[in-house]
Every structure is written in structure tokens, then in C-alpha cells.
């Protein structure tokens, strides 16, 4: 693939080799000793072809970029460098989604049309390729339909420039516009969760050493998303220094929710956010909550003791969908609580078996470790003291251990139980169903790291990090709606087709292609298949729409080449 603009031919270590009427430029990047011939042979790579009008200029190719990375490349590739086969299926679906949300209008207003459409292309690239490395974007653009005017193909250097030069206010402006379009009159359930991202770029201000879930010994930054579980759509996100723990960040998220106009909302939170301070903060802002209680909490233990053997086999308490039994108790959470809360206690036989096995396995591993270090001065972690009485002699030599049976039995008796607290009156079944809607948010986070390639940000400046997180968020909005449409279409099927997942649907849609004929015009390569029709139907598209869109795409490309 050659650029359509010229660069000066390097002055050193180049060789010109003429083939037919074309002079190719080779760069000698090293030498290798040939044992058979007894001399050094040059290691060469073709880096371009000489201009036909200027002998000191050449048209560079990808090898030139590899051997001369310091050179600033042009922003776009020539249209003739486009593949003769363009994938358009997923592009049409993404185009449908972003226009339904008016995302192009929002982004273009903030960044301008040129950068705004490239922004959307990079978001689409993340979804389709499950990657976020700017250096591979031109390879994607080479054989995909694009949002840019005339489907112009930009280089990775342009992507890097977009990320590093995007105004700092871009994310706040987009989030303001995005949340302004939401219906604030209806009551919604907002699921909130946080994660962290490892980073090797230690010079980022936001990156700090903290307590990451996946501790690789690297500095991290925090990243959280508020997700509308009622309408299955992400609302807003936050990024914050890695040393800040998730539980203390909730206060700022609640203030942001208020600023965006969300008044009638119930927050769904996991056990990591259970604290008196967070509960009081939600109440002070007028928000209700559905909150999982931390395991082994004293309150939970006391309720288990009170309700044990009274509901675990009662068919009246059975929640069939989750194969769980549940009951509700009204009480106060803490001594100076001014309101009654609704404590929903659950028991699952499957969960009991699994949790008991985990505990027994942990205890056995601990005993194996203690047997191994008998007679040594090894100091065991604090977790060992929770379950065992350890005996040492006067010089600190470990002698023996004895299981704290009362502690182990108490924990075994709580296996299979879990608890949800709600500020509003509801049944145990309603509380569990609301909390389980968090699964959408969990899938969102898994999709962020697994399906969008964002486990690593691959940028080395604060501005680029902020820009990439915004693009990632827009990609999450698109992918989430992609998932929702597919799920809603196939949810009533007893046996779902193997393409009823986002990755599988994308793979199938990528087979909808346009080919360039001998006259240079792109045309739809073949008719839409039955599988593709089923997937397109999820988004309100059909074969006729695909055909019409392919004609419009072909027209765009012809107009671009005519310029």
C-alpha cells in the first residue's frame, strides 16, 4: 500500500532497483554473514517507489513507516488504496443505532464534522475488531465502509492527533448533551459499578498505585459507569485516580446524577458500596436504593439466626426464575437509623453447595500449608488466624494448629444465604429481580475489556486517555443497544440460534460485502442470506434497505474519486 503523496528519498543506505518502468527504493537496514559464500550480504526492504517527475522524491509504503517512524505521514491514503471488497453489514447497523440516538449530531457539534465522523469510525473499529490500537485502524479502514466524508481513509497518525488534540471539554459537553436527551420524568433504576484499568504509562496524572481487582503491580486509574437498567442504556461515566477506593467515589457520582437532572431514580449497588455514609448520602439527595449487603455482616447473621428453617423450603417463598427461596424482614439497619428498611433474605441450595465447597477447599489448602511449615519460623497471614489457633514456642518456631470449630461452623451455617436491602417496600422476589438487572451492567464491563479491547488504553498522555475513554463510552452505548436489540428479538425462543450473540452477529454481518467491478464501481457482491436477514430484522433493516444503502455507498466512492 503506497501513500499518494511524496517524501524525500533518504540520503543514506538506499539502493534503487528498476523493474520495467518503475524504480523501487530499497533501504539497507543491516548485514548478515553468509557462511556458504564467505561474505556479508545486505538485508534490504522496499520502502517505496521513485516519483516519475522528481528523482529525489518517492511514494512511501508501510515499510518506510517501519524504518523511519520519526517521519510525519500524511493524514489520508489514496482512494486507489481501498480494497476491492468492502464490508458494509455491521456498518449499516451501527449507522442505524447512532442516528437513532442523534450521536453524529452531538459529536459533530462539539468536534466539527471532519473529526466527529472520524471519532465514530474509531468507535465502530473498536466494536467490529474488538481492539483499540490506533496503529491498526488503517487496516480496518482499508476494507470497511466508513462514516467520514467520501469514506476517506485516515492514517493512524491522524487518529493519534485526534486523541491528543481533542478539547478537554469534549467529554463533559457530550455527556451533558447525551443526558439532556433522556426522559427525566419517568422513574428509572440506575445500576452503578466501577472497575480499574492497569497502565504502564506512569507519567499520567490520573494513574496511581491503588488496590486493583487484577493486580499486576502496575499503577491504575478508576473507571465507573452509571447504567439505566430500565431502558438498558449507559448514562454517564467517571474516571478518577487509582488510589481512590470505589466506595468513596459514590458521593461524587450521586452529585453528577443530580446535575444531569435525574430526580426519580433508584440506585442498584453491589456489596462494595454498603456503608452507613453511602446510605445517608443517597437519602440526603432523595434517592432510593437496592443494595447487596456484605457477606458475614452482623446484621445478616442475626437475621439468618432469626429466620433460619422458616422459609428455606416454603413454596410460598420460592422464586422459580432464580431457583431461590426468599423472605422479607422490616427493621432498622443501624442503632440511630430513623427509617425502617426492608431486609430481603435469600437461600439457595445450589449456592450453599458451592460456597461450602469453596470454604472446605480453602481450609484444606491452609492446613496443607501449615503442615509444610511446622518446625519453621514462618509467619502466616492474618486470614489463617480467622480459622485456626496457632501455637509457637518461645523462639517463634511454629509447632501446631487447631481448627476454630465454632467459627467454621458458623460460616458453614451461613453458606447459601445472601441479603439485599431496599429503602422502599417490595417483595423479596421484586428486590431480587431488580438487583439481577445489574447483570446488564456486568456484561457492559466485560464487553468493555473483552469485546472492545480496552483492558489496556495504549496511550501515553492524559489528554489522549480522556479522549479514548470518551470514544470507548460511545462504543459501549452502541454495543449495548446492539446487544439489547438481539436479546429482545430472540428472548422468547426456546432454542436460540447460534448467531444470537453480538460477536456472532457481527461475524455474520461482516459477510455482507460490496465488490469493485471492472468498471471501478462498487456493487453488492451477493444477495442477503437468511441468517443475515434475521439479524438485520432485529434493527429494523431488510434486504431492500441493504441494497439501497449499497447504491448510496457506491455513489459516495465515485464522487470521491471524481474529485
| % residues in beta strands | 15-25%
Low-confidence stretches: 200-210
Instruction: State the share of residues found in helices, binned by percent.
Output: 40-55%
Instruction: Write down the overall mean pLDDT.
Output: 85
**Radius of gyration computed on alpha carbons:** 30 Å
The tally of helices reads 19
DSSP E strands, number? 19
Outline, from the CA principal axes?
A: globular
> What is the terminal-to-terminal distance?
21 Å
Query: In terms of structural class, how would the helical and strand content be classed?
Result: alpha+beta
Question: Order of strands across the biggest sheet?
Answer: 9-8-7-10-11-17-14-13-12
Largest sheet geometry: 9 strands, mixed
Brief summary of the model shown:
This protein has 563 residues and is α+β, with helices and mostly antiparallel strands.
Per-chain topology:
Layout: E1 7-8, E2 14-19, E3 22-34, E4 39-50, E5 57-60, H1 62-67, E6 85-87, H2 89-100, H3 103-111, H4 113-129, H5 137-142, H6 156-165, H7 170-180, E7 188-198, E8 220-228, E9 233-241, H8 246-259, E10 265-269, H9 276-284, E11 288-292, H10 298-307, E12 318-319, E13 324-331, E14 341-347, H11 349-372, H12 382-387, E15 388-392, E16 398-403, H13 405-414, E17 417-422, H14 428-436, H15 438-451, H16 462-490, H17 502-509, E18 513-516, E19 522-524, H18 530-538, H19 543-562
Parallel strand pairs: 7-10, 10-11
Antiparallel strand pairs: 1-5, 2-3, 3-4, 4-5, 6-18, 7-8, 8-9, 11-17, 12-13, 13-14, 14-17, 15-16, 18-19
Amino acid at each position: 500500500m503506497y501513500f499518494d503523496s511524496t517524501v524525500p528519498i533518504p540520503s543514506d543506505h538506499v539502493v534503487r532497483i528498476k523493474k520495467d518502468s518503475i524504480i523501487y527504493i530499497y533501504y539497507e537496514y543491516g548485514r548478515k554473514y553468509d557462511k556458504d559464500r564467505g561474505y556479508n550480504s545486505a538485508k534490504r526492504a522496499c520502502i517505496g517507489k521513485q516519483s516519475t517527475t522528481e528523482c529525489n522524491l518517492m511514494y512511501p509504503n508501510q515499510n518506510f513507516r517501519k524504518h523511519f517512524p520519526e517521519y510525519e505521514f500524511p493524514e489520508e491514503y489514496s482512494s486507489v488504496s481501498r480494497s476491492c471488497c468492502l464490508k458494509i453489514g455491521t456498518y449499516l447497523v451501527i449507522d442505524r443505532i447512532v442516528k437513532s440516538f442523534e450521536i453524529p449530531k452531538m459529536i459533530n457539534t462539539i468536534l466539527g464534522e471532519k473529526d466527529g465522523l472520524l471519532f465514530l469510525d474509531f468507535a465502530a473499529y473498536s466494536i467490529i475488531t474488538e481492539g483499540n490500537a490506533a496503529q491498526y485502524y488503517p487496516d480496518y479502514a482499508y476494507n470497511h465502509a466508513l462514516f467520514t466524508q467520501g469514506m476517506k481513509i485516515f492514517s493512524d497518525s491522524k487518529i493519534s492527533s485526534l486523541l491528543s488534540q481533542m478539547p478537554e471539554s469534549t467529554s463533559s459537553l457530550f455527556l451533558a448533551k447525551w443526558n439532556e436527551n433522556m426522559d427525566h420524568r419517568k422513574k428509572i433504576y440506575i445500576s452503578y459499578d466501577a472497575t480499574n484499568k492497569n497502565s504502564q504509562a506512569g507519567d499520567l496524572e490520573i494513574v496511581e498505585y491503588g488496590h486493583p481487582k487484577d493486580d499486576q503491580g502496575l499503577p491504575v486509574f478508576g473507571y465507573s459507569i452509571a447504567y439505566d437498567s430500565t431502558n438498558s442504556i449507559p448514562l454517564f461515566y467517571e474516571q478518577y485516580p487509582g488510589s481512590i477506593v470505589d466506595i468513596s467515589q459514590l458521593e461524587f457520582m450521586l452529585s453528577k446524577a443530580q446535575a444531569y437532572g435525574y430526580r426519580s431514580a433508584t440506585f442498584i449497588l453491589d456489596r462494595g458500596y454498603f456503608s452507613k455514609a453511602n446510605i445517608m448520602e443517597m437519602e440526603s439527595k432523595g434517592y432510593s436504593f437496592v443494595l447487596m449487603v456484605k457477606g458475614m455482616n452482623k446484621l445478616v447473621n442475626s437475621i439468618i439466626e432469626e429466620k433460619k428453617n422458616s422459609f428455606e423450603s416454603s413454596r410460598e417463598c420460592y422464586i422459580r426464575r432464580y431457583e431461590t427461596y426468599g423472605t422479607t424482614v422490616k427493621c432498622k439497619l443501624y442503632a440511630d437509623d430513623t427509617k425502617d428498611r426492608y431486609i430481603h433474605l435469600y437461600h439457595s441450595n445450589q449456592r450453599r453447595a458451592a460456597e461450602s465447597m469453596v470454604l472446605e477447599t480453602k481450609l484444606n489448602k491452609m492446613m496443607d500449608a501449615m503442615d509444610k511449615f511446622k518446625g519453621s519460623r514462618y509467619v502466616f497471614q492474618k486470614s489463617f488466624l480467622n480459622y485456626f489457633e496457632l501455637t509457637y514456642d518461645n523462639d517463634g518456631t511454629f509447632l501446631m494448629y487447631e481448627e476454630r470449630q465454632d467459627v467454621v461452623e458458623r460460616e458453614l451455617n451461613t453458606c447459601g444465604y445472601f441479603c439485599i436491602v431496599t429503602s422502599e417496600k417490595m417483595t423479596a422476589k421484586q428486590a431480587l429481580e431488580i438487583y439481577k438487572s445489574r447483570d446488564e451492567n456486568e456484561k457492559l464491563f466485560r464487553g468493555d475489556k473483552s469485546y472492545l479491547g480496552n483492558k489496556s488504553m495504549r496511550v501515553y498522555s492524559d489528554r489522549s486517555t480522556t479522549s479514548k475513554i470518551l470514544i470507548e463510552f460511545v462504543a459501549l452505548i452502541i454495543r449495548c443497544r446492539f446487544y439489547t436489540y438481539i436479546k429482545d428479538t430472540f428472548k422468547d425462543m426456546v432454542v436460540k440460534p447460534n448467531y444470537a450473540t453480538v460477536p456472532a452477529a457481527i461475524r455474520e454481518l461482516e459477510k455482507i460485502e460490496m465488490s469493485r467491478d471492472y468498471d471501478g464501481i462498487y456493487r453488492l457482491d451477493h444477495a442477503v442470506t437468511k441468517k443475515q436477514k434475521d439479524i438485520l430484522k432485529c434493527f429494523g433493516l431488510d434486504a431492500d434497505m441493504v441494497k439501497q444503502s449499497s447504491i448510496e455507498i457506491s455513489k459516495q466512492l465515485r464522487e470521491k474519486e471524481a474529485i
